[in-house]
Amino acid sequence: MPTLGPSRCARDAPPAQELVRFNRLIEVIHASLASLQKALKGLVLMSSDLEALGVAMYDGKVPSMWMSKSYPSMMVSLRP
Questions:
Q1: What pTM does this model have?
Q2: Does residue 72 belong to any structural domain of this protein?
Q3: How far apart are CA 15 and CA 70, in angstroms?
Q4: How high is the pLDDT of residue 1?
Q5: d(Cα 12, Cα 4) in Å, to the nearest integer?
């Protein structure tokens, strides 16, 4: 089985780190949307965070609870 050299590992580290950050952000988005859906159905109480989430989404803005978990991308843009 071939082994990866140090240059390959160093080159692959930023995309791997970004995937970890992205997966954490997706978890926050998924959990907050599930909680908002339950609150809108009346299954749980609507907290101020969930209300702010709903208002931001209604206004077409990125909710602050998502922005607090977001990060600047290290990936090179695919645009020319």
A1: 0.72
A2: no
A3: 16
A4: 47
A5: 10
